[in-house]
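Hi, here's the filled form for the chain we discussed.

Project: internal
Contact: R.S.
Residues: 495
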Amino acid sequence: MKKKICLILMFFTLILLAGCSITREDQKGEKKTEKTRQASAGKENTIVWAVREDAKVSEKNIQKTNHLLAKKGYDLAIKVKKFKADRIYEKQEIYHNALEKAVKAGEVDVAYVDACYETAQGEMAQYLKSGLFYPLNKWLHSGEGQVVYRLYDKEVWKGSSVDGENYVLPNEIYYDIPEEVIAFRKDHVSQKLIKSWDGSWNDLFRIMKKVRLSKDDMMVTGYPMMDYFEGRVKKRRYMIDDDIVYNIQNQTVHQPFELKEFYEYLSFLHKCYQKGYITHAMEDIVTSQDEIEHLARGEYAMAWTAEECLNPSEHVFARRSLCVRGILGEGTAISAYSDKKEKALKLMKILRTDDEIANTLIWGEGEAAKLLDGDGYVKKSIERVSDRSAFGLNDGIFQQKEEDVTPAKNMREYRNKWIHYTPRTTSRLLGFWPDYSEFYEELTEYQQVLGESVNCFQEKDFDKAYQEAAERVAEAWKPMKKKLQRQIKEWKNNK
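And the returned structure, exactly as it came back:
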């Protein structure tokens, strides 16, 4: 009997031990599974993201993002791969050449592409349609891609397309945000006088002559820009890209000196310069310390500056008419050679629809509210650890929370602000990108001559100086005009 009892006890003991062993093994298995899942996401489910070597990317934030992706059930992870780059705002040949090799070798799934240089957008268009990047139209109009499509205005897609196809998710949704304004100080210029302005440059000079300043005040602070001549009207007729003037209504090309509007603008600048109302050359961004101090103290009647830099309660703004135009600046592209295209596209959707994940990637925190102070700006104590543009989460796409920028909580808010901006004109050249390879040397020469000629408004004999400048620019422009107009005609015929 005792033997039977002992045997029974031993039997149950073995079962219990086996059970404990199984439990321990199960726990180990669960931990192993978690590690395996993470490891899996680190291999076939890891999206390799190509960026410039100077992008400020935080590995800590990437780890947090990958953890959050896993926590939310996404079998995806991000790995950043940096490539040698040119100096910012210069030609991107070094970066793009390195990127091309990596894409063709299958080493990259997602790529930051950029066009921050002169003649940028035309060259960017040629680069995008070279076969390196996956065409997105089909995805944007089917399945979950439609969610991303609806986040942007239709004109954004049209304006960032190349020959009717979209190869990038634009990193910025604005087209031509009228940041630069003429701002009249309410305490220097009467409301009655401001309201009497008919919007023309000649009439603005009339108003300026009636303003009475103290000896410490300036008439104008800021500097004139070449494209200002076409931006102070309710319905814009022109836009300037790469120093070429496009008539966005009749789809023709010009150089500035061909247009009476440009003469009127330079004539206005000349009269202001002679009176001492303005002191700067065209697009001379060098501002004296004295002028900065005048600006800080409000000792000026008018300013040419960004609207967001000034207190709206102290000013009346004359805004530029917004022109909905093509933009191919920064973008996020999917490698045509990647075997993870669907997963990469899924990640693009997540980053544009899940605020917590996007915040974590670019700021290191999940809740946007924790990052903001009472005025809606990012707290200075929070480390700015990432270049938002590298991840396609730049102005208007997602969080805009830097200290020096008026914030928009997300792209939905930003979109509504600018898409519904009035006055607004849509260019009939949306989606047209010039191929400068036909006349690159001529374009370079033309831009140099134009840059030397636009400051003719500073000459005492303005009309004579203007005529001489116009002749020089016309001669440099001649080899390009027919070729460029032909490209527009071919583009229209192929639409």
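Let me know if anything looks off before we file it.
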